[in-house]
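Lab channel / #folding
Pinned by the channel admin:
"Please post every new chain as: sequence first, then the structure tokens as a reply. Keep commentary short and put observations after the output so the thread stays searchable."

First post following the new format, from NK:
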Amino acid sequence: MTSRKIEITPNVSIGGADAGTFTLIAGPCAIEGEAMVMETAEKLTKICGGLRIPFVFKGSFDKANRTSIFSPRGVGLEEGLRILEKVRSTFGIPVVTDVHETTQCAPVGEVVDMLQIPAFLARQTDLLIAAARTGKAVNVKKGQFMAPDDMKNAAAKLCEAGNEKILLCERGTSFGYHRLVVDFTGILEMQELGFPVVFDATHSVQKPGGNGTSSGGNREFVPPLMNAALAVGVDAVFAEIHPDPDRAISDAANQLRLSEAREILARALEFDRCRRQK
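Reply from TO:
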């Protein structure tokens, strides 16, 4: 099923019948500092430019749902937005970050091109409405506890708030304790709602709380799941990519290595092109 086209910027859109390839939404899990973010953004911009993959840079200014109260959370709202604005202006690419509270939406919406709703908050009505009222595109991650058709209610909240620039994101479903699985039929069900569907390849291999005071994961499963999702027909891929993921302050076990990104994306592009062939 062909989704509607959602314009992120005049040069980057997601979905639609005329899309030549998937869009990549990628960057480090947390904004740990300006130097690392700028390095990652520069290299991913060059990689995506060479492969002709539309690119949206992602970085979180605050990781509000950490497993442990002692886990680092990032640089905070003010510094995070400053860095994201520098990425946007330096490389000419759209940027996205997630919001956790209604009061964050307006200031975030003044800087970014797309807002992201974390999976744990996909049912939070006031947050969805506040994000919608920025007028920016909104990527809603399906809660690990939600059925695919539950996302119609999240989309309806955004639409009722006057914003139909909606993306729906699959990021795995809880399967017992500390484990997620990906139901690819769920992607097909979400496609029936008519909005572009994003596959979160790195969070889908996460083991929430699996390391006791932090989450674990299986980085090696990211490429095959990404390829499978593209074969099914997702419009965009979300992936957290870090220069040195083992030293990352969050999601160390499932972020992709920046040095391996080009090879992984080139292979993913082959699956995407096969799917798009008539």
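NK: The longest helix spans residues 34-51.
TO: also worth noting, Residues 207 and 224 are 17 Å apart (CA to CA).
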